[in-house]
Specification:
145 residues
């Protein structure tokens, strides 16, 4: 892995880590305010960091997934399974998992958020792929002549 690729991997990790951490801290803060806590407990902040690190690391599964549609689909399925399983296990460990009557809502929200984020990234990647294909076609035409 070259220096350029390493920078891309690190940038991807920190971008996903930052977004996941901000979302986790926001949710933790809302819950703390709703239960009447004066401040967000340090333990919860630590849990938010651990959750964000996990999500950032799982996101690295996507590295190289744009080789073809099959690898993209396979990595999406693997990514989803690892992410939902890992997040659920971490939430059980942190004591965050909602009571059983709220589990369906938790999973429905998780799946809905995953689909929205996946569609957004798919559209971004689709534009990138189209631009790369246009450049490749242009290169092929230029080298034919």
């Amino acid at each position: 892995m070259g220096k350029r690729n390493t920078k891309g991997v690190v940038a991807l990790f920190f971008m996903v880590f930052s977004i996941a951490f901000l979302i986790a801290v926001t949710i933790s803060t809302i819950i703390a305010v709703m239960i009447g806590a004066e401040a967000l407990p340090l333990k919860e902040l630590r849990n938010d960091v651990l959750l964000a690190v996990f999500i950032g690391l799982v996101q690295l599964i996507w590295i190289g997934s744009d080789q073809n549609n099959r690898t993209y689909l396979i990595r999406t399925i693997i990514h989803f399974i690892i992410l939902i399983t890992g997040c659920t296990l971490l939430m059980v460990w942190f004591g965050w998992l909602p009571p059983s009557q709220w589990l369906a809502i938790y999973y429905a929200g998780f799946i809905a958020a995953y689909i929205v984020i996946w569609i957004a990234f798919f559209r971004i990647n689709k534009k990138k792929w189209q631009a790369m294909n246009a450049k490749l076609d242009e290169y092929k035409r230029a080298n034919k002549e």
